[in-house]
Fold:
Amino acid sequence: MSIPALSAHELMALMNAGKASKEEIAAAYFERARGLNSKTHAFLRLEAAPEFPAATSVTLPLPIAMKDNICVKNRLTTCASKILDGFRPPYDACVVEKIKASGGVIIGSANMDEFAFGSSTETSSYGITRNPWDLERVPGGSSGGSATAVAAGQAVWALGSDTGGSIRQPAAFCGIVGMKPTYGRVSRYGLIAFGSSLDQIGPLTQDVTDCAMLLNIIAGYDRRDSTSVDKPVPDYTQALVRDVKGLRIGIPKEYFIDGMQPAVEKSVREAIEVLKKQGAVVKELSLPHTEYAVATYYIVATAEASSNLARFDGVQYGLRVVPDKTRKSPLVDMYEATREQGFGDEAKRRIMLGTYVLSSGYYDAYYLRAQKVRTLIKRDFEQAFGEVDVILSPTAPTTAFKVGEKLADPLAMYLSDIFTIPANLAGIPALSLPCGFDDNHLPVGLQLMARPFDEETLLRVAFSYEQATAWYLRRAVL
Amino acid sequence: MIDKKTVYYVAALARLRIEDAEAERFARNLDDILQYIDKLNKLDVDGVRPTSHVLAVENVYRDDKVLPSLSPEEAFSFAVEQHERHYKVPKVIE
Amino acid sequence: MVSAPGGLMSQTGNMDFETVIGLEVHLQLKTQTKIFCGCRNVFGSEANANVCPVCLGLPGSLPVLNRQVLLDGIKVGLALNCDINRFVKFDRKNYYYPDLPKGYQISQYDFPIAKKGWLEFPCEGRSKRVGITRAHLEEDAGKLIHDDRLNCTLVDYNRTGTPLVEIVSEPDMHSPQEAYDYLTALKLTLSYLNVSDCDMEKGSLRCDANVSIRPVGQTKLGTKAELKNMNSFSAVKRAVEHEVERQTRLVLSGGQVVQETLLWDDAQSITVPMRSKEDAHDYRYFPEPDLVPFTLTAAEVESVQIGLPELPSAKLGRIRQSYGINEYDATILIQDRSLADFFEDCARLYSDYKNICNWINVAVLKEIRSRKVGLADLPLKPETLAALIQRVDDGTISNLVGKDILSGLVDSGKSVDTVIAEQGLAQISDDAALEKVLDEVIAANPKTVAEVKAGKTAAMGFFVGQAMKKMQGKANPKKLNEMLTRRFQNG
Structure:
């Protein structure tokens, strides 16, 4: 039989009813993933055949796409960078262990912006990924491959990573659900770091129910990650109830800016009305330091990245370039030639920016100041959450833009993360879900943010909205 | 103002080799971004504590107990070049 | 300002220079596992046997602090009279070198575990106090082996992630000898803490020196050179001497000292500028995001304080006072914490403290040195030594025999009395037997008898020797002497 592209919970229902086996489901997805990949290029690499892990407790034996910055034992893991060419980690990331333990089948490595440096998946060293809703447009980024795989039905669901919006923005551009959990909710062990104090792994799924199911698998304390938090993990599917009565939803006025695409604002305003109708109490509020978030982020994230990427030097693993003629010393030449050829432009730009803001004489003016502004941004949220339970905004100021449109203007690209960055700086959980389409039939994303470790409220609001509308049922046609 | 000299200094610190033609472009890119970042100077941050860890988690330790190391096969499975259980690199001049 | 007593004053023409030395000591902690991962922390394993994704700095790996390292760091800080920072954090120090797999070292920058301490020690006949600026925790780097035949460098990451305490002194030393004495005293104090092997040969204790000179009277510090690659305390002394001479000569000939790192070549007694790290001084420190901060309670610090052993200087004073041991002997005893403990254990069993001290500092130390072991590995119980000394005291065996059998006692583990009996070593103190032998040797040597009677009393020793010979060395020499004196006095 042919298995249609269904959500995880629908597939589980089929399986539990004896109408499909995990092997049949895997085979169907593997075939579709391969068949569509020449169109979307969601995957950098596809597994040859499904490999069902010797799982400890098989609960969700479904095909999953893994972003290429999450270590899978003995499998190429490259961050879409040439510098990690040929690198096969000798260990599984914590989330991969958990996926395997639950019976999950890794279908392949999803494309991404090189080292997650980007918002369009165009900085991948191995070619761009295309948006399933319009192949001339970007899928967003940096988890563009993960989002595309899910939206195109090339995977049941996917894992991505989010440092400044890298799960939520591509989820919005591709019309699916993406969540960045609270910093510390999911172990970062085995996630190749970009901005260590901001990075978080999270699910990209077809609907809110799947999001809760996948979060159930990956959340939890890990003794190998000092920044993961030892807090009990609730059953997130219990939060999937249609009830927002009396729930206080805040609308930050700074998130409705000039230059925002009118269709985005219209869809988000309509979504607010839907929630109001269900009994939510909506109030406008202010997050006064929002306009400083992007600047703060580009200091903190690039500083951390410049240090995190120092290990890619050709010494142990990955790419090594040894020039014929040495200029300084064989070793320094190897470092420089390897890094020159191994990193793309955006990686070099961010490494240089991060190096600059940490360098002697500039630390206080840039890095220290940014850390202080980070405190102010975090305080904005703490104050807001004294008044409301959830903050609602657009996920991105526009829908998916055209391939190449912003590539030449790094700053314009950075500004496309303007609404997603604050949640990373504050460490709070945030989720994007579809809330409409623009005139070009491109999906619009609605962002919800909540208090630290209150993923349940996010899921409850998202589920209530999702069930009251039908946006999530629309599929890209390829 | 970021000039080419600064680009070269920073590139050297970061072990990046930048060609002359690229230096100007990188200088311009970085300058744009730094000018944008400059808006942070509008804020008064006197007395504000810096945030380096976003959650108030402290004192995460490990007990002093031995855990398995990688086997030699694993430890060299990803090595670019090796020689008799050592990672091999071009000569270091001290 | 006059240079401190004992300071090296290079007097040339009308310019006098003062030497200023600060020392950075790296101490490897002997925890079971590395500082940020569970790999074994041992010296001498096969290359790259103790490595994992964390200490190899593989992409995606994350550090977790070994709690014992923090406790040992507090211990070192307290022993050096430092303030312990109750808020501790780690920072990244960024630089490139193939022995540093992450491209940064996890270290401590602005909140080290300990700061503002001091160490006081005897130096050239007076007491010298050197300030301790700070002690911080960090990870060690790997080991590079330069292979000329293959024209490459080989890297062993076993040492990567070994916990280190870096102890930074104030620039309070003004002569190579002061630097040497500081290091000796520091090593002694650290060895009492039982947190490190403190072995320079194995690299568990390493020392870099910052050396500068300045005209006498100038308060501003001169430009310093950093000396590395000294493999013993005496090499530190020689390197510093050489560097002071070099700087003095340079300045007098109109030159200027530049800040640089120099490698000491002990064989040739020269320093060579280090080429590879010269552009790496912009370390771009920033808080390590992968490790959370640590706060220590007063109770935690106090419990480490309570657990501290008595430190060498305190022990020296107490042993001198409680047992009446002179400074020289007491100083030998405290060079090894277990030796001093051994002494005190013996002192509970035997009350002539001075005598025990002599036995330990001569005979026991000889056993330790000839066997090249520590006292802990010498199977000698305080009870055995005390019993041995008592048998010498009560005349059962001579002093000489006592020293002779010590080695056998250590090897066999038998009791003193058993060895004396088995080997028939007991002295003959029986009056009748001794008198009989004396009768014989006196009768056989009339000429010597005459000499003694003529006042040459020293010749009595001849009779003692003869009697000893006849009794295979077992005669009690004290008794023989007494008997001879009595005989010749009487007649």
In short: Chain A touches chain C through 46 residues (CB under 8 Å). Residues 364-387 of chain A form the longest helix (24 residues). The CA atoms of residues 296 and 373 of chain A lie 7 Å apart.
